[in-house]
C-alpha cells in the first residue's frame, strides 16, 4: 500500500525516441536533488509554476533547476506537516498532525496556521467544490472536517469504526470520496456535511481511490479486485484477468480512457489496466521484481511507475508503460537503493515529473521527457528561399528548435528556429531559409532539443523554383496601353539586343477586351507598323488653281506592314537601315458603333504605341 499519505501518484521517466523516429518510448533525463531535502512527502503543483512539498517539518518549494527553499516560520510549536493540497485561493493548504492544526502557505512563503478543535488529529486534506477545505481527523472520534479559508471548523463524525487510511478525492458530483477501510466501505461526504457509505463484500480491503475517465470512482481492493462505484452508489468489483494472489494498490486514470493500477503481489509484480466495462489485463514483460509504488499519467501519453529496490540485483527504477502495455525500466539517474513505499510523485504542469526518495540520502527527483517535434509545410517558395514551419511540444524543459536541410536526406545545413520554454502545449515554429539552389529538391525536418534528448520530425521535401531571367538575359520588351475597352500590347526585341540589318524584326501584337469594362466597346480593324516614319512614297498629283491645272509632287509615308487580325506575329525587314537605335510605331485602328437620335453610325478610333529597337 502507499501508506497513510495523500497517495500522490509517483511518476517516472523513461525510454527511447531516436532523432527522426517516433517510437513508443521517449528518452528521459532523471536527476535527484538531495541538498536541503529531508523526509520529503506530499507533492503538489503551486500556482507559481513550482513544485511544493512537505520537507523536514516545514513546507518547501523546489524550482525546475532543483533549488530547494523550506519555510517554517508561522508553524505552530511541535508542528509536523502531514498532507498538502491546493486551496481555492491559490495558496497551498496543509494539515499538521504534530501541532494539531491546519494552515496555508502563500507562494511567497508566508505561513498561517489555525489550531484544530481539541481532540482533532488532521491527516489527509483536499479542496472541496464549495470553496472550503476538507480533511480527515483521526482523533478520539474520527471525523471528516470542513474548514473555511477563514479558519472555521465543522466536524462530521465517521460511522462507527470508520478509518480513512489512504487518499480522498473530489468527485465529479462535487462530493468528497474516500475508501473506509475500517467499515469496509466506499464513502462520500456532501458539501452539506452528510456522510454516506456504500458497503463492500465481506473481506474487501479498499485502499486508493481515483476519478476515472468515465466519470465513475475507481478503487483498489487489496483482497484481489478493482472496484467501480458510480456517483449514485452502484458498485461493481472485477477480478477476472488478475493473477492469483493479486495485490492491487496505486490507481489512476489513464490517458487512453482506461484506469491503470499497480499490482504489488510479491514475486509477481505487474502493471494492470482495466477498461470502463471491467476488462482487466496485467502486464509483466520488462518489469523486474522491484516494488511498484504509485502510478500516474505523463504528458507524453504514457503511464509512469517508480519502483523501490528489493536488493542489489534489482536497483531502484522508474518504469514507463505505453497504453498498449510495453514496459521500459530506467535506472540511470535514480538512486540505486532509493525509494520506499509511501514516496509521492507528481506530474508537473510543465510536463516534467517529480518524485520523492525517502531512502538516505533523502532527495526529490526530476524526470525530463524528450520533446515532441512535427515537421510542417514549406511555404513562400522562390528559386533561392523558403519559409519552413512545424510544431514542437517542449514538455519538461527549455527546448531549442532548429531546422536541418540540404539537397539530400543527409541534410548538411542547420538553421535556428528559436527557443521555447517548458510546456505541454504544441507550439508553432518557423524559420526562413535563403541562399538555396534554384530548381533543386530540398530535404528538411524540424529538430527539438532539451535536456533529455534531440528529437526530429519526419523528413519532408520541396522543389525550389527555376532562376528568373536576369536583366542581361532578357531578349524582349513589351509595351502596353489601353484604349476604351481594349488592352493592347506590342512585343519587340529589347533595346539592349542588336538585330542585324540583314535580318527581320520579330514582333508580337495583341488586343484583348477588358472584362466588365464600362468604356466604349471597340472592334479591331487593323494595325499599321512603321519603322521610324514608315515607307516613303512620292506621287504626282494634278490640281486646279485659278482655273488652271497644276501638277504637284506629294510625299506620303505608308506602313512597313499592315496587320488585319490579332493576335499576330509579323516580321519586318530591316534591310537598308543604318546601325543604331530606331523607333517602331504601331497604330491600332478600331471601329465604334454609336447611336444618335436612334440612328447608328460607325466611328474610327486609333491608338499609337511606340518602342525602341537596336540595329547593328
Can you describe this structure?
This protein is mostly beta strands. It has three domains: 342 residues, Methylamine Dehydrogenase, Chain H (7 Propeller), CATH 2.130.10.10; 92 residues, Immunoglobulins (Immunoglobulin-like, Sandwich); 145 residues, Immunoglobulin-like (Sandwich). 0% of the residues lie in helices and 51% in strands. It is built from no helices and 53 strands. The strands form 14 sheets. Strands 26, 27, 28, 29 and 30 form a five-stranded antiparallel beta sheet that branches. Strands 36, 37, 39, 40 and 41 form a five-stranded antiparallel beta sheet that branches. It is elongated. The N terminus is likely disordered.
Amino acid at each position: 500500500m502507499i501508506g497513510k499519505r495523500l497517495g500522490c501518484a509517483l511518476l517516472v521517466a523513461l525510454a527511447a525516441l531516436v532523432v527522426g523516429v517516433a517510437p513508443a518510448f521517449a528518452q528521459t533525463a532523471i536527476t535527484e536533488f538531495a541538498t536541503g531535502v529531508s523526509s520529503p512527502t506530499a507533492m503538489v503543483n503551486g500556482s507559481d509554476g513550482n513544485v511544493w512539498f512537505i520537507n523536514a517539518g516545514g513546507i518547501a518549494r523546489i524550482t525546475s533547476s532543483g533549488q530547494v527553499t523550506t519555510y517554517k516560520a508561522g508553524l505552530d510549536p511541535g508542528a509536523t506537516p502531514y498532507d498538502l493540497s491546493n486551496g481555492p485561493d491559490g495558496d497551498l493548504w496543509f494539515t499538521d498532525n504534530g501541532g494539531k492544526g491546519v494552515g496555508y502557505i502563500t507562494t511567497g512563503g508566508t505561513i498561517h496556521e489555525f489550531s484544530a478543535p481539541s481532540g482533532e488529529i488532521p491527516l489527509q486534506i483536499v479542496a472541496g467544490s464549495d470553496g472550503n477545505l476538507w480533511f480527515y481527523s483521526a482523533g478520539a472520534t474520527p471525523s471528516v472536517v470542513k474548514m473555511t479559508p477563514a479558519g472555521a471548523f465543522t466536524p462530521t463524525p465517521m460511522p462507527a469504526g470508520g478509518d480513512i487510511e489512504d487518499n480522498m478525492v473530489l468527485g465529479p458530483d462535487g462530493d468528497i470520496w474516500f475508501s473506509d477501510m475500517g467499515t469496509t466501505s466506499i464513502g462520500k461526504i456532501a458539501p452539506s456535511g452528510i456522510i454516506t457509505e456504500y458497503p463492500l463484500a465481506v473481506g474487501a480491503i479498499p485502499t486508493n481511490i481515483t476519478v476515472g475517465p468515465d466519470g465513475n470512482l475507481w478503487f483498489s481492493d487489496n483482497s484481489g479486485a478493482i472496484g467501480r462505484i458510480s456517483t449514485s452508489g452502484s458498485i461493481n468489483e472485477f477480478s477476472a484477468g488478475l493473477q492469483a494472489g493479486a495485490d492491487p494498490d496505486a490507481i489512476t486514470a489513464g490517458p487512453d480512457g482506461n484506469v491503470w493500477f499497480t499490482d504489488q503481489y510479491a514475486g509477481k509484480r505487474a502493471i494492470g489496466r482495466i477498461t470502463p466495462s471491467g476488462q482487466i489485463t496485467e502486464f509483466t514483460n520488462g518489469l523486474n521484481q522491484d516494488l511498484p509504488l504509485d502510478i500516474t499519467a505523463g504528458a507524453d501519453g504514457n503511464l509512469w511507475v517508480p519502483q523501490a529496490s528489493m536488493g542489489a540485483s534489482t536497483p531502484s527504477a522508474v518504469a514507463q508503460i505505453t497504453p498498449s502495455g510495453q514496459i521500459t525500466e530506467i535506472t540511470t539517474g535514480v538512486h540505486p537503493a532509493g525509494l520506499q513505499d509511501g514516496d509521492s510523485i507528481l506530474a508537473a504542469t510543465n510536463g516534467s515529473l517529480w518524485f520523492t526518495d525517502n531512502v538516505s540520502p533523502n532527495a526529490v527527483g526530476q524526470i525530463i521527457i524528450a520533446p515532441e517535434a512535427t515537421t510542417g509545410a514549406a511555404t513562400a517558395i522562390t528559386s533561392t528561399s523558403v519559409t519552413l514551419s512545424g510544431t514542437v511540444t517542449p514538455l519538461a524543459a527549455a527546448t531549442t528548435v532548429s531546422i536541418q536541410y540540404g539537397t539530400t536526406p543527409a541534410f548538411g545545413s542547420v538553421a535556428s528556429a528559436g527557443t521555447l520554454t517548458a510546456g505541454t502545449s504544441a507550439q508553432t515554429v518557423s524559420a526562413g531559409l535563403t541562399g538555396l539552389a534554384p530548381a533543386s529538391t530540398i530535404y528538411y525536418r524540424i529538430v527539438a532539443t532539451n535536456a533529455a534528448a534531440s528529437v526530429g520530425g519526419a523528413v519532408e521535401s520541396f522543389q525550389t523554383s527555376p532562376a528568373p531571367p536576369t536583366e542581361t538575359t532578357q531578349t524582349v520588351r513589351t509595351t502596353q496601353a489601353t484604349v476604351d475597352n481594349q488592352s493592347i500590347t506590342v512585343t519587340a526585341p529589347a533595346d539592349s539586343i542588336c538585330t542585324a540589318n540583314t535580318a527581320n524584326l520579330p514582333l508580337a501584337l495583341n488586343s484583348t477586351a477588358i472584362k466588365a469594362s464600362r468604356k466604349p466597346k471597340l472592334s479591331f480593324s487593323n494595325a499599321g507598323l512603321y519603322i521610324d516614319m514608315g515607307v516613303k512614297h512620292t506621287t504626282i498629283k494634278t490640281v486646279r488653281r485659278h482655273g488652271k491645272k497644276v501638277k504637284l509632287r506629294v510625299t506620303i509615308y505608308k506602313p512597313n506592314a499592315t496587320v488585319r487580325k490579332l493576335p499576330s506575329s509579323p516580321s519586318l525587314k530591316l534591310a537598308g537601315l543604318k546601325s543604331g537605335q530606331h523607333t517602331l510605331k504601331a497604330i491600332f485602328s478600331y471601329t465604334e458603333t454609336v447611336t444618335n437620335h436612334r440612328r447608328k453610325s460607325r466611328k474610327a478610333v486609333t491608338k499609337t504605341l511606340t518602342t525602341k529597337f537596336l540595329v547593328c
